[in-house]
Every structure is written in C-alpha cells, then in structure tokens.
Amino acid sequence: MKKQVFDTVVVGGGASGLIAAIFSARKGCRVLILEQKDKLCKKIYATGNGKCNFTNKDWQASYFRGSDFSLAEPVLRSFSFVDTLAFFKEIGVYPKERNGYYYPASEQASSVAENLVREAKRLGVECMTGVKVNRVYREPYIDSGTVFVAETDAGIYRGRSMVLSTGGKASPAHGSDGSGYPFAKSFGHTVIPVFPAIVQLKADGKFFKTLAGVRTDGRVTLHIGKETYSEEGELLFAAYGLSGIPVMQVSRFASVALANKIPVTAELDLFSVLKERELTEEIARRFRIMKENTAEEALAGLCNHKLNYVMLQLCGMEPTKKAGSYGQKEAVTLTEKIKHFTVKITDTNGFEQAQACTGGVPLNELTESMESRLVTGLFITGELADIDGTCGGYNLQWAWSSGAAAGKKIGGTYASHSTVETKH
Ligand SMILES: Cc1cc2nc3c(=O)[nH]c(=O)nc-3n(C[C@H](O)[C@H](O)[C@H](O)COP(=O)(O)OP(=O)(O)OC[C@H]3O[C@@H](n4cnc5c(N)ncnc54)[C@H](O)[C@@H]3O)c2cc1C
C-alpha cells in the first residue's frame, strides 16, 4: 500500500510554524502541522501581556543578537514589518501602533492566534494537536528518493519536506521545551548553547527584600569584562534582584557570561533625570532647609521612599538622624550611591520565566530560505535558530520572517496542488 506523504510536515504549531504552513499551503502544498499542546499558537496568547506586540517599525541590527546579523537581515527584509502588517490585515488582524510598537487593534493576543489558525484551516492545512513528535529522520521513498518522517505516539507522518518550528526552551509551559534541538542535531546541525534571554536577573544584597516591588525610571548598565550593555526605562526591584524592561533587554548578555563563569555586575542610575552635580545640590539643599527633620523625611519625594531609606543605610547614614547633621560631603556620597548603585549579578531566572532564549542552530548552517545547508528539504524557523531579539516585537517578527521564508521556498518547490486564492 502506498504511504500517505504530505508536501511538508511542520513540527510545532507556534508562530513561525503557522506562517510557514500558511505560505506553503497558499502555493498549493498539502501541509500537516503536528503540535504537542492542546491548541495551536499557545504562546502567542501570552505575548505582550496578552496584547501581543507582533512587530515594530523601528528595526536595526542592534535589536537582534546571536548569529551574525548580516545572515538574518535578508530574511527579515524578505518579509519585513510592512509585509507583516499587510499579511495580518489581510487575515483580519487590524493593527494599532504605539510609539512604533504594533499590537492588534483589539488589544487581544488571541486575535493574532485565532486569525492565524483560521487562515491555516481555510487553506486546508491539516492540524493535529496533542501530538508530540518524538523523533525525526529520513527514509528512502519510492517516488521521491527520500522522505522526512515524524514519529509520534499517535502514528508516523511523512513529508517530502519538513519544517522544524519547535521554538527554543523559553517558557516550556507554552510548549517550547527544547525538544527541537536534538532533532536539528540528528540531521547533523550544530546547536549553540542555549540560555535564557529576556529574563529577570538575580542579585546579591539583603536590601532587595526591602526594595521588592519598587519601580523607578533609570538606567541599568551591565559590566562584563571590558564590555558594557546599557538600557534605560522603568526598573523594577524584586526580592531576588532586578526586573523591568531595561533589565530584560540586557539579560541575555548576563546569561551567557555567567554560564561561562565570567563575573557580571549591574550598575544602576536610580535618578537619571538629574546630573550628578544637580542631584548633589538638591540633596544638600534638602539637608539644609529641612535640618530639623529626619534625613529620611528630608529625602521624601526624591526617590521612592524605600529607595531613600536603603540608600541612606548603605551610605552608613542613619535615616532617623536629623538632616541638619548631614551636609555637602554626605550629599556627594549619597549621590554616588544613587547614580552608581552597583550589585553583583549571581544568576538569571530560569527558562520558565524567560521570554526568549539565546543560542540554537547557527544561521550560517541555513540558507536565506531557512533551509538546511546540510539536508535539502529540511527547514528550521523561529527561535530554534540562533537569533534572539530584544523586547518590542522583534522575536515575533523573526518568527514571521523566518516562517514566511521557509513557507515560500517550500511552496515553490514541493507543491503538489495548484495555488490557493489568498483573498477572502
Ligand atoms: C510570556 C511571553 C511573552 C512574549 N511576548 C512577546 C511579544 O510581545 N513580542 C514578541 O515579539 N515576542 C514575544 N515573545 C517571544 C515570542 O513569543 C517567541 O519568540 C515566538 O513565539 C517564537 O516562535 P517559534 O515559532 O519559534 O516558537 P513557539 O511560538 O514557541 O512555538 C513552538 C511550538 O512548537 C511546539 N512543539 C515543541 N516541541 C514539539 C514537539 N516535539 N512535538 C510537537 N510540537 C512541539 C510547541 O508546543 C509550540 O507550540 C514572548 C514570549 C513569552 C514566553
């Protein structure tokens, strides 16, 4: 009996898998998606705090890390943020822009997920959920030389091509449990070590318990050997250390350094609106005019009150002592602490809390169509490849661009039916 062979089997029904499936089906491919979770695109529902920041109009090399950006750029250009907006509008997701960041106008990530799934089903993509792929390999096949095989507990599925779109290791609760790496390795690919990215940082210091929950605008600068990585925005203190968007943006550098036993420190500017001299003058002025108040009272309204308290203590100053007992010298010391608050980073939170991960299959092992340079017909998309973006819609843009690149190539090479109408 002749075995059923799909034009392509997509392993992993997340962001990049859905796009790859849609683009290949539009060209007439018979497509099967195998997804281990109970529904497709589970992670998309959680993105952007439930609002899904699905792309960004400002894109530069520095927003993408990992493999040499020159290898990612043609992929991103071939399906740019403009193409992304047009595609999502076409499938029903009307975009809304906020400072260059794009969300669905509905402000519901579910709109992105549901419209993707609807479009895939409209095109006749066969979607199997609750089916984990355990093993992938190639076997000889009568008509086409070899076929790709995906082994699952529910059966064996074959494709003339295969897309590995299993995601990385970040947020395994949404399905990306790292199972794609051994699949890529089994086809001979290298896997660059994988660490959490866009993640909170753990730091040394008893005072973090007191500061937990404090939010303040400021700048974080990571010092790693001679390198520095800096971001500005809202910093958030937690009992374990540091969080907030700027911290998450630089976290991947800490992850990689700590894994290589390189010490990491974070220097925080907790009052970036004033220059050092201005802040010293402001503190000294407060000590002068509120000399009968406590030092803590004199600082009230400058930084968050918990920060004022901890900073005074760390400078060896008694918060309850009269402000008048302090002067210019202490104002300089306090300024130094507030503007250059330095802590030792001991670790990052784990993959469970991470929004992305570093590492994966290096881009120099893939073509601009995300096809393996080692195995013709094998495609690797999304986070499984060694590229990670900063917060701001860049990781999803990579998922869309890499998925579209693979889908178009598969559509142009393996389609056994005629092109499917894209307009609704
Ligand atoms: C909480 C959170 C918020 C985020 N917010 C944003 C945001 O606002 N903007 C942004 O740009 N990025 C955001 N990201 C990152 C973004 O979601 C990912 O980079 C993107 O989803 C990666 O796409 P992917 O296709 O590579 O993998 P995923 O979307 O992770 O999909 C992989 C799929 O493969 C399936 N799978 C894995 N192994 C198997 C197997 N063996 N068998 C069958 N199925 C398998 C998984 O179940 C999963 O459904 C966020 C991430 C998280 C965790």
Structural description of this entry:
It is a single chain. The chain has 424 residues and is an alpha+beta fold. It has 3 domains: 255 residues, FAD/NAD(P)-binding domain (3-Layer(bba) Sandwich); 59 residues, no CATH class; 64 residues, Helicase, Ruva Protein, domain 3, CATH 1.10.8. The protein has 13 helices and 20 strands. The chain is elongated. The two termini are 38 Å apart. It binds flavin-adenine dinucleotide. The site of flavin-adenine dinucleotide has 41 residues, from helix 1, helix 2 and helix 13. Flavin-adenine dinucleotide (FAD) binds next to helix 1, helix 2 and helix 13.
Short key terms for the protein model shown above:
424 residues, alpha+beta, FAD/NAD(P)-binding domain, Helicase, Ruva Protein, domain 3, 3 domains, 6-stranded antiparallel beta barrel, binds flavin-adenine dinucleotide
Count the E strands.
20
Which structural class best describes the helix and strand composition? Answer: alpha+beta
Distance between the termini: 38 Å
Query: How many helical stretches?
Result: 13
Rg, Cα atoms, Å: 26 Å
- Could you say which overall geometry the principal axes of the C-alpha atoms support? elongated
Could you estimate the helical fraction of the residues in percent? 25-40%
Chemical compounds bound to the protein? flavin-adenine dinucleotide
The low-confidence runs, each spanning 5 or more residues with pLDDT under 50, are none
Largest sheet: 7 strands, mixed
Q: Compute the number of structural domains.
A: 3
CATH architecture group name of the largest domain: 3-Layer(bba) Sandwich
Proportion of strand residues: 25-35%
Determine the mean pLDDT: 96
- Give the C-level CATH assignment of the largest domain: Alpha Beta
CATH superfamily of the largest domain: FAD/NAD(P)-binding domain
CATH topology of the largest domain: FAD/NAD(P)-binding domain
